[in-house]
Write a structure and sequence with these properties.
globular, 7-stranded mixed β-sheet, 5-stranded parallel β-sheet, FAD/NAD(P)-binding domain, Guanine Nucleotide Dissociation Inhibitor, domain 1, alpha/beta, about 20% strand, 3 domains, 16 helices
Length: about 450
């Protein structure tokens, strides 16, 4: 009989890992903090905000940000293809990046249908969102990279995005209007706080790779509907799998080895191998302090920093023909606009993501949308007050920030404990914390875990 594997955490990472292991015939037990009767668990708060801890934050690892799927995200597309769900994304029209400039003008970074690499050069030359001098300086740098005259520096992880942009002769105007909003979207932090390593990685993947990789989609579904529910359904069909609705409280360890996992209801679970797909802070809370002090693998986790994003969502009683994706310079953030998933209703869903520090005590009201009210007449031909938004709600997303010099603290799948693996969007995937990083981490963890078990 194949080994029994206990996966702790049923967010996107944990469910993807359980899916991979189940398809290989392993017996998998999954700990999901949400009971079968819990309503809308994917809309709960996520993590510590201004010193206050939300229960859902410590135990749940779903992503509350609106879904934006890029064609270059291979792990995401592979999973959707395996689940036979790609049509739920590709049936929507691909959207360009639209930048809202400081003077409130809209400028689109439209695709150009030309052979690679000329499509990138033409797109940049035609883009009116930044001064020509910045575009020309960037084009010359790109050419130098292609010809080998410039190489990526060894210390790029220690550079901030702001410093990297300065070396690439980007003006303050371009940084404020374009680069900062791109950085917030890709990494969740402003350019002066972000590592150039992760930023340049995503720039290459998104804009300097194959022309088909430039396509971006805004599906009419949230993470629960597009990913989590289908993965749970598959897990439930496997006869050897078991699901526990509880919270992991503590790892009982016998030397460098987990002997059992204690749940909040007092149950002790045992398995041949254990995998933590818990949020980083929750994993640290479950580990004995002596192990955190003994192993740099665990003590390094405390060196990673957190960043919180606020998403303000609403519904408008107006129909739109296609989704849109906008990036803001002031207030810094980004927005998705999509039609309702129900074609019989003329409704539009708006999700606005910002770095602004939220007041978790305040109720959600129309006033929360005032900072972006200037945009509504351009987008919908009506003012915010005329549209009367409904179902206004705020959710919080805390993730591991991509600060300079932080990448060395992100862990690999195999921990120093002989029977514990670790996975999550915050592990060493080479990507910022994101859905793509969640799936990449689950895939690599599954591969390494299976190799470890077959070599025994």
């Amino acid at each position: 009989m194949k080994p029994h594997i206990l996966v702790m955490g049923a967010g996107l990472t944990g469910l993807t890992l359980a899916y991979r292991l189940s398809r290989q015939g392993f017996r998998v037990s999954l700990i999901d903090r949400n009971s079968p009767n819990s309503s809308s668990p994917h809309r709960q708060s996520m993590d510590t905000i201004e010193g206050q801890t939300h229960t859902a934050a410590l135990h749940h690892s779903s992503n509350h940000l609106p879904i934006v799927v890029h064609r270059f995200q291979q792990a995401t597309w592979n999973l959707l293809k395996e689940l036979q769900l790609t049509s739920l994304v590709t049936d929507t029209q691909a959207v360009p990046f639209e930048f809202v400039l400081p003077a409130h003008q809209l400028r689109s970074f439209h695709p150009v249908y030309a052979p690679s690499p000329f499509h990138t050069l033409f797109r940049l030359l035609l883009f009116q969102g930044m001064p020509f001098s910045d575009r020309w300086a960037l084009l010359k740098k790109v050419e130098q990279y292609w010809e080998g005259e410039l190489t990526v520096p060894q210390n790029i992880d220690s550079q901030s995005v702001k410093a990297w942009l300065t070396t690439h002769q980007q003006s303050r105007q371009a940084c404020e209007a374009i680069w900062n909003s791109l950085c917030v979207f890709f990494l969740g932090t402003k350019s002066e706080e972000s590592s150039a390593r992760y930023f340049t990685t995503l720039l290459r993947q998104c804009f300097l790779s194959a022309r088909t990789h430039h396509r971006t989609f805004i599906p009419a579904l949230d993470e629960e509907s597009l990913f989590l529910s289908p993965l749970r359904s598959f897990f439930a069909t496997q006869p050897m799998n078991r699901l526990f609705h509880s919270i992991v409280s503590y790892f009982q360890c016998d030397g460098p080895h987990i002997s059992s996992v204690k749940l909040s209801d007092g149950t002790a679970l045992t398995a041949d191998m254990y995998v933590s797909a818990l949020p980083r802070r929750r994993l640290m809370a479950c580990l004995p302090e002596r192990l955190q002090a003994k192993f740099a693998y665990f003590s390094n986790l405390s060196q990673l920093d957190d960043q919180t994003l606020l998403t303000t969502q609403c519904e408008l009683s107006i129909g739109i023909d296609k989704p849109r994706f906008l990036l803001f310079s002031d207030p810094c953030g980004w927005m998705t606009i999509r039609p309702s998933s129900d074609p019989s209703t003329a409704k539009t869903h708006v999700s606005w993501v910002t770095l602004s520090k939220p007041d978790i005590q305040s109720p959600s009201t129309q006033e929360d949308l005032e900072p972006i009210s200037f945009l509504f007449p351009q987008l919908f031909k009506k003012s915010l007050s005329q549209l009367t938004p409904t179902n206004i709600r705020k959710t919080f997303q805390t993730f591991t920030a991509c600060h300079p010099n932080n990448s060395s603290f992100r862990p690999l799948p195999k921990s120093p404990l002989t029977n514990l693996f670790v996975t999550g969007p915050w592990t060493d995937t080479g990507l910022p914390s994101s859905r793509e990083s969640s799936i990449v981490s689950a895939d690599s963890c599954a591969t390494e875990l299976i190799q470890n078990l077959t070599q025994r």
